[in-house]
Specification:
Elements lengths: L6 E5 L7 H10 L1 H6 L2 E2 L5 H11 L7 H7 L2 H10 L4 E5 L8 H10 L4 E8 L2 H13 L7 H9 L15 H10 L1 H8 L8 E5 L9 H10 L19 H14 L4 H16 L4 H4 L6 H21 L2 E3 L22 H29 L24 H29 L16
Parallel strand pairs: 1-3, 1-4, 2-3, 4-5, 5-6
Helix pairs in contact: 3-4, 3-5, 7-9, 8-9, 10-15, 12-16, 12-17, 13-17, 16-17
């Protein structure tokens, strides 16, 4: 017998497990999904972000996020419950939910049949990716300190929450504590409705993650033939270290101010172009050994939970070989300064564009009269701390660009036409 209740799939993450790929694949094939009676809710994926931020209370610190998220979860729930078919919501912040928050989410969808999908990945790949992500969201934690924080999770027995004193440990557990996520969510859905999808190991068949995910949510993977229009941008080791130093200079900023200027523009759009030149952060011996133990713990938790598994637990290897890059506690200073030269030019250009935009809309703004900056890595060579000097200059440009954007947003509120044409905000990650 076929249920006439709506069917809702919650893809809850975890972070750095191919979630952006899955989301972009769903967005690219939205028309195909609609023809098949499948809803990917919200006209923009960012509305799923705001809804989940409200549901798991990640909207507390930034007034703008709090305003945009107000009522967003209930609106999203109503849209899915009103769809007489299948809905798929994919937002990795759901994996942060504690029991009460997850219970509230599932309770708001009580009129539907709800399945929960959790993607999992080899932790040795997640650790460097999560450090990079934490830095381009404002973290000031160095790579060696992050690794030490990760290893503190061995034997961690305290009740996990969002306010652990060690920010590296908090960042790691948000992304990687699969046993906790299983414990929270599988209690809330009937047996057989909690699914784990493993992320294929490097070198696997292209598109295999999508085929696995599509199988779980009842889609024909071949019918969704449009490729993702965006990829998950990343930055290299040197650029991540540079950005960390910039964060030290900036101090704490509102997330919406930071995201559009530093994260989206400086990090992902500008410094992302250097990723192939710089290499990536690699694990030291102690953390490689930790990764083996962590993968074993995750495999045991999945097996003992009895959840439906699509993929292969061997995708979480119990041996981690040496890395051809070797371990480096910090990148080469020359590479960091090369990244800084690009960053200064990019931020100078952004400041000039936002200044001109304010003059067009507001008037009375002094336009730059000097020539655009043309920088090279020897710009800071005479400074006692060249990287520190570069970071300070970049941070000053970032603060100016943020100030201009705040004025443009205020003008947008006062006039019908939009003032902010730097591009849409993609999620404002908390």
């Amino acid at each position: 017998m076929t249920s006439d209740r709506p069917a809702i799939y919650l893809h809850i993450g975890a972070m750095k497990t191919g979630t952006t790929f899955v989301q972009q694949k769903l967005i690219a094939n939205r028309d195909t999904l609609e023809r098949a009676g499948v809803l990917f809710p919200g006209p923009r994926w960012s509305q799923q972000v705001r809804a989940v931020q409200e549901a798991v209370r990640l909207d507390r610190k930034d007034p703008r996020i709090r305003e945009e998220a107000r009522g967003a979860w209930q609106a999203m729930a109503d849209e899915m419950l009103g769809h007489r078919g299948t809905s798929i919501l994919s937002m990795e912040f759901l994996s942060f939910a504690r029991r009460r928050q997850a219970r509230r989410v599932i309770g708001s969808l009580a009129a539907a049949d709800v399945d929960v999908v959790l993607t999992v990945r080899d932790i040795s790949a997640i650790i460097p990716a999560q450090w990079q992500t934490s830095v381009h969201n404002g973290s000031q934690v160095s790579w060696p300190d992050y690794l030490r924080g990760v290893r503190k999770s061995v034997g961690w027995r305290a009740r996990w929450g969002h306010y652990l004193p060690d920010s590296a440990l908090r960042s790691f557990l948000q992304a990687a504590d699969i046993p906790r996520m299983l414990d929270v969510w599988q209690r809330l859905v009937p047996r057989g409705r909690m699914h784990v999808v493993t992320v294929p190991r490097p070198g696997s068949e292209p598109g295999l993650l999508w085929r696995r995910f599509a199988t779980v949510v009842g889609l024909d993977p071949d019918a969704c033939s449009e490729p993702p229009k965006k990829t998950n941008a990343s930055i290299g080791f040197a650029s991540t270290e540079l950005l960390r130093r910039v964060n030290l200079e900036l101090g704490r900023q509102r997330q919406t101010d930071y995201n559009n200027t530093v994260k989206n523009f400086l990090a992902l759009e500008s410094l992302g172009a250097r990723a192939g030149l710089e290499g990536r952060a690699t694990l030291d011996d102690a953390t490689r050994a930790f990764a083996v133990g962590w993968n074993r713990r995750v495999r045991e938790a999945i097996t003992s939970s009895g959840v439906h598994v699509v993929g292969d637990l061997d995708d979480l290897p119990l041996s981690v070989g040496s890395d051809p890059w070797g371990f480096r506690a910090a990148p080469d200073e020359g590479q960091v300064l090369d990244a800084a030269a690009l960053a200064v030019e990019a931020m100078d250009d952004l400041v000039r564009r936002r200044t001109r935009r304010r003059e067009r809309r507001e008037g009375g703004i002094e336009l730059p009269t000097d020539e655009p900056i043309v920088a090279s890595s020897d710009r800071w060579v005479d400074a006692p701390d060249p990287v520190g000097a570069a970071a300070a200059e970049i941070a000053e440009l970032c603060l100016t660009a943020m100030e201009h954007r705040r004025h443009l947003l205020a003008l947008r509120g006062a006039h019908a036409e939009g003032a902010d044409d730097d591009g849409p905000e993609e999620g404002d990650e908390g």
